[in-house]
Write a structure and sequence with these properties.
Helix content is about 75%, strand content about 0%. The chain is mostly helical.
Length: about 280
């Protein structure tokens, strides 16, 4: 019974989160129709408030896309190097150093994006605003590199050595073995690492709250400020919306949608892992 209770803690916690989000989001949707919620106009504190979610979804997707464009190629090539090319001594040194990135507080990444990366990018892109989507997207990608690299390397290391030796016996080079044997055999774990990294990027808060600003305009220009779903929640929980108002309950509607996004990403990762998993 004790072990059952401890195993049930995460399930009960998840059910409690879902209940809280659904109950308060229901109060929001009693006041705001879905047609307004899925619109491009978001001005929750104006005299005539509107609660369109599309600007927040737009900002979230752009930061996530930029982050993945940084994390996927760097993380995957780092995993290939650590798994197939690095010596055991080099691997013991580089892997812990790389995984230190995952232990840095995200608020530090946020200040790094705002005070270091953005000024550099403004010299390269003169039209870049002080608060923008490009800078936090890049830094977020750097933050999730360890997740992609570590999970992908574990998947590659699980490929039996006999498959590598068979390819070498046929005259393949180390690079050919990596791309034509190891990566295809480990594709389920690699793809799962990508999807989990996307889920991590979607739920990131402090980097985008500090560096991407709070502009609620629906735009596709990554040099401009945008607001993500998590940044919107941070902004309103600071006291801008009085408890019991429609703006207050909009936090739970946004939170419910964010929860749905991350849950879908995790389910996709599990599906990919099971569907393409190789048994050796």
């Amino acid at each position: 019974m004790f072990f059952f209770i401890t195993a049930s803690v995460s399930v009960i916690t998840t059910m409690g989160i879902i209940f809280t989000l659904v109950a308060d989001a229901y109060k929001f949707f009693l006041e705001v129709p879905l047609s307004e919620f899925f619109s491009t106009k978001l001005s929750p504190l104006s005299a005539d408030p509107s609660f369109g979610i599309l600007p927040l979804i737009n900002g979230t997707l752009f930061t996530t896309l930029i982050a993945m464009l940084v994390a996927v190629p760097i993380g995957l090539t780092a995993a290939m190097y650590l798994s197939e090319f690095a010596t055991e001594r080099t691997r013991r040194i580089l892997k812990p150093m790389m995984e230190l990135l995952a232990g840095i507080p995200t608020i530090v990444y946020g200040f790094f994006a705002y005070s270091f990366v953005t000024p550099i990018l403004m010299k390269v892109i003169p039209s870049l605003e002080p608060k923008n989507v490009l800078s936090p997207g890049i830094v977020m990608g750097i933050m999730i590199i360890p997740m992609v690299a570590s999970l992908s390397e574990d998947a590659m290391n699980s490929v039996p050595s006999a498959m590598r030796e068979g390819a070498y016996g046929l005259g393949a080079t180390k690079l050919e073995v990596t791309f034509k044997v190891v990566v295809p055999a480990a594709i389920s774990g690699i793809m799962a690492s990508f999807v989990l990294a996307i889920s991590r990027a979607i739920g990131e808060t402090m980097i985008v709250a500090i560096a991407s600003g709070s502009s609620k305009n629906f735009t596709f220009d990554i040099t401009h400020s945008m607001q993500t779903m998590t940044a919107y929640i941070v902004e309103f929980t600071s006291g801008d919306a009085a408890s019991g108002t429609t703006g207050y309950y909009s936090l739970y509607a946004v939170g419910l949608l964010l929860f749905a996004f991350t849950m879908i990403m995790n389910l996709i990762a599990q599906h990919i892992s099971h569907k393409y998993k190789e048994e050796y």
